[in-house]
Amino acid sequence: MGLYLNPGNTAFEISRFSEFYIDKSMLIAQINAVYKSEKRFICVSRPRRFGKSMAANMLSAYYSCGCDSGKLFAGLAIEKDKSFLPHLNRHNVIRLDIQRFLESERDLDTFISQIESKVVRELIKGFPECTDFTCNSRLKDALDQIFLQTGQGFVFIIDEWDCVFRVAKERKEVQKSYLDFLRGLFKGGDYVELAYMTGILPIKKYGEHSAVNIFKECSMLNPGYLAKYFGFTESEVKELCIKYGVDYGMTERWYDGYLLGGQHLYNPHAVTELMDNGEFQSYWTGTETYEALKIYIDQNFDGLKESIIEMLGNGRCKINTRKFQNDMTTFRTKDDVLTLLVHLGYLTFDRKTSEAFIPNQEIAQEFLNAVDDPGWGEVVRSIKRSESILKGTWAMDGKAVAEGVATIHNETASILKYNDENSLKCTVLMAYYSASAYYLPPELELPSGKGFADVVYLPRRNVDRPALLIELKWNKSAEGAISQIKNKQYAEWIKEYTGELLLVGINYDEEKGHECIIEKYDKSCG
C-alpha cells in the first residue's frame, strides 16, 4: 500500500460510516461497464462539495489491490451487482490528488516533475522485478516497461484534475505543459485499464492540446448517464428530511434547482449542514466566497448586468455555451462568464431551452452579497422595494404597483436598455424579486389559451397566496393588457387550479409613464 500506488481505503471508510452517508455505490457498476473499453476515459466536472472526492475515494477503495474493502461495501446496492466481485480490490490503482502538489503558486514550475518522481519511486518498490527504469524515468516510460514485462495495467483515479487552471490562471505555458503531460500519460497508453478524473472545470480547449479529448465528459452542461451519482436526488433529500424532522418544502426552496440529466439535484454539502444544525441559510460561503462571484459578474460585457438583473428576478437567460474555453480567464462575451458560473454552481442550465438561471435561495443569497456594493446600488434598492410592490399587488392597488415599477425603472435605467417590452419584463421580474418566498420560479411566455402569458407566478405548496398572471404592454394601455388576457383566454389553465388568481396588466407609455390595473379573475366568466 502506498500514497499514490495502490492506496488504502481510509478516506472512503470515513465517508461510508458518516451520519449522513447516501449510497452512491452503483456508480461503480457504470464505471465497470467501460473497463478496458474505448470508453474507459471519463472526466466528471461538478462544483465544489458535490461529492466528487467521495466518489473518487470510493472507486479507489473498490479497485485498489492495496486494501481489503469488502466490509465497506457490505449492504450497499453495488454488492448485488454481477460486476462487483470480479473487480473488488483486484487492480493496480494510481490515485492522484493534483491539489496536494499545488499548495501554492511556487509549486507551478515543479509539480509535474514531483508527480512523476513520487509515483515512479513507488512503482520501483511495487514492481522490483522490473529493472528497466529508474527514479529519473518519466512516469509514462516506467508504466510502459511494467506493462511490457508483466502485462499488468493500471486504473488511474485523478481528483482536482483542473487545479492547475485555477492556481495558474495566467500561466498559459504551465497549462500547456500540464495538458501535454496528461496527453502523454493517457494517449495510446496500453497500460491504461481505466482513467477517471474529477474537477470543477471540463477539460480545457487549447488548440492541438485538446488531444485530451479521448475523455468522455460528464459536466454541469452535459451530465450524461452519471448525473444522479453527484448530488442528492429529490427522493434522497425527502428521506433525510423525514429522518431529521426538517421541512421538505423549505428545503426545496433553499437548496433545490440544479437540473442535471432530467433530475433535480441538491448540493450534498448544503443538505448535510442543514440536517446537522437545522438552520436554513447559505452554506456556500464555506465553499466559495461572494467576492469570487463578484469578480465575474462585474465583467464589463454588454448585456451581462442586464442578464444578472433578470436572473435575480427569478428569470432565465438564454446563453451560448459552445465557445467557452473551459478556463477562468478567457472571456470574450457575457455568455463565457455565465457559462463559467454554471460550472462553478452559481447558475444552473436547462439543456432543453439553453437557459441559465439562479437555482435556489441559497445561491440567490450569494448573488445578493455580491451585488451589495456601490456599483450595484440601484439593483439593491430595487430588490428592497420588491416586498412593498408584491403587497400592493395582493391588495390590488394598481397605482402603488405602477409607482413601484416606475421607481425601479428609473433606478435601473443605467443598466437596462429600456426601449422594448423585453426590458419592461426584466424590470417587472426585479420588482417581484420577493415573490420567491411565496411563489415558484416565474413561468415566462407560458402557453395559455390562444397565446402566451408574459409572466405567471404560481404559489408554492401550502402557501395561501393568489396566483399572478401578468401581461405587459409597450406604448399601449393597461386596459388592453387585461383585455388581451381575457380575449385570448390566457387563464384557461385555471380549470386545473383551485386557488385565487389575480390578473395584472402593466403598460409603459414613453410619454405618460407606467400604469397598472389589477383584477380578480372570475372563473365563472372564464
Secondary-structure topology with pairs:
Elements: H1 10-16, H2 27-32, E1 41-45, H3 52-63, H4 84-87, E2 93-97, H5 111-126, H6 139-150, E3 154-159, H7 163-167, H8 172-186, E4 192-199, E5 216-218, E6 232-233, H9 234-244, H10 248-255, E7 258-260, E8 263-266, H11 268-277, H12 290-297, H13 304-312, E9 317-318, H14 334-344, E10 348-350, E11 355-357, H15 361-371, H16 377-394, H17 398-412, H18 421-431, E12 443-448, E13 451-457, E14 467-474, H19 478-487, E15 501-509, E16 513-520
Parallel strand pairs: 1-4, 1-5, 2-3, 3-4, 14-15
Antiparallel strand pairs: 6-8, 7-8, 9-11, 10-11, 12-13, 13-14, 15-16
Helix pairs in contact: 1-3, 12-15, 13-18, 16-17, 17-18
Protein architecture, described:
- The protein has 526 residues and is of the alpha/beta class.
- The protein has three domains: 10-229, Rossmann fold; 231-281, no CATH class; 373-525, Trna Endonuclease, Chain: A, domain 1 (3-Layer(aba) Sandwich), CATH 3.40.1350.
- Helix content is 38%, strand content 16%.
- Helix 12 crosses helix 15 (361-371) and helix 16 (377-394) packs antiparallel against helix 17 (398-412).
- The termini are far apart.
- The model is unreliable at 447-452 (pLDDT under 50).
